[in-house]
Amino acid sequence: MRFLMKLLVLSCLLIVVYQYSQCTELSRASLNSDTSENSLKLQYLQAFKEKRSVSEQQLAPFNAKVGVASSNVPAYSNGNDSYYSGEDSYLYGTYMGLKWQCVEYARRWTFLRKSSVFESVEGANNMWTQLKYVERVADKKQFSLKHHPNGSPTPPTNESYLIYPINKGAPYGHVAVIVDVLPNAIRIAEQNYYFNYWTKNYSRELPVTYRNGLYYVQDISEIYGWMEIDDKKELKPLDEITARRIQMKNAPTLDSNSICSHMNVHIYLFILFLCLCFGYFMFF
Ligand SMILES: *[C@@H]1O[C@H](CO)[C@@H](O)[C@H](O)[C@H]1NC(C)=O
Ligand SMILES: *[C@@H]1O[C@H](CO)[C@@H](O)[C@H](O)[C@H]1NC(C)=O
Ligand SMILES: *[C@@H]1O[C@H](CO)[C@@H](O)[C@H](O)[C@H]1NC(C)=O
């Protein structure tokens, strides 16, 4: 009888311990997913510190923040153009691309400045032929992309994508975002083209020429043209409330987190304590 009681208490203890460990594991897992969503922010902080400690002449190592365009879209160094990190970049639980490729920058810029993303592409060069629209994340409304070949009757427009075909130095082509338009030049922001720190709020300034009624953006390599987001000024920068909403929607561990809340963890600990007390006074 005594042995049976002991066994009962022991198994009760085991169950409680098991449940408790399950719970802490789950809450740890959900915490981890939180941190992975926040890891970009941490990355930003870390990169910022790195930037301050390195002189402006030096090449930026992988993950270092090289500059910020459009007031809040940081660009990070890919280290060199042969490096493939294989690391995913997420912002508010939304996939941005691979750290720190040019397409990742273009998508993150679109997310932060236009609350939208574009679909996945094999390489930046494919954007020219494949992408027909950007999609607002909150309501999935699509806004079409207007293609303007390099050599167009209208000058390049601000906040458009500048797309490059595959060439010797760029096996996947290249994409930059036009962040400012001057009378005879454009300013662009980009990742994975050069690896130095920006001195201003853009990476490069490219001249725009006008010949035989057509506008051309000049660069050392060939350019397909620019793609304009045809949103009639409807798309707005991502605000805090929308960002939080998107993050909530993307958080898959929300349910398990609420089942095994801190409250529950404490209850298990309490039951464990009771069992121990009970066992101690009954049998020892
Ligand atoms: C870039 O910085 C300059 C000077 O601080 C500012 O006047 C300009 O508006 C900024 N441009 C963009 C596109 O943020
Ligand atoms: C490119 O950068 C990566 C990451 O910083 C580094 O491991 C690799 O050695 C670099 N490759 C070259 C050719 O510099
Ligand atoms: C281009 O757009 C940026 C915002 O993304 C703005 O700050 C800048 O003034 C615009 N430039 C022109 C020439 O409209």
TrEMBL record:
Residues of the Peptidase C51 domain:
77-218
Superkingdom of this entry's organism?
Eukaryota
Task: Tell me where the signal peptide lies.
Answer: 1-19
UniProt keyword terms in alphabetical order:
Membrane, Signal, Transmembrane, Transmembrane helix
**Membrane spanning residue stretches:** 265-283
Its Gene Ontology molecular function terms? ligase activity
PROSITE patterns for this protein: CHAP (PS50911)
Entry-linked SUPFAM superfamilies: Cysteine proteinases
Q: What is this protein called?
A: Peptidase C51 domain-containing protein
Q: Which organism is it from?
A: Adineta ricciae (Rotifer)
